[in-house]
Write a structure and sequence with these properties.
The protein has about 100 residues and is α+β, with helices and mostly antiparallel strands. The chain contains 1 helix and 6 strands.
């Protein structure tokens, strides 16, 4: 009986770790660690970003969990009035 209770307790502990929620795992191999830019806040909060080979800034929105291309140029490489310095950690991806 005691062995069964120990097994049930262990199972209950492991079951507490189970989830159907999507879990993202990050991986980066080589390349720059950060991407600096300046942002005017137009899109609201964002989680991450990087400069793509297409010349646009790509940012990751935690709300919908996808990468967006900043076609309206609310991100820029140089400082300017109304823009704040931001630093992204996103690994370079080509969309």
């Amino acid at each position: 009986m005691r062995k069964i209770l120990i097994c049930l307790a262990a199972l209950a502990l492991v079951a507490g770790c189970a989830t159907r929620q999507r879990v993202d795992v990050g991986f980066r191999a080589g390349g720059p660690a950060y991407y600096d830019s300046y942002y005017d806040g137009y899109y609201g909060p964002f989680e991450d970003g990087y400069w793509g080979n297409d010349g646009f800034f790509w940012y990751y929105s935690g709300r919908d969990r996808i990468w967006h291309r900043d076609q309206a140029r609310h991100f820029r490489r140089d400082a300017g009035p109304g823009f704040n310095h931001v630093r992204g950690h996103g690994g370079r991806r080509e969309h």
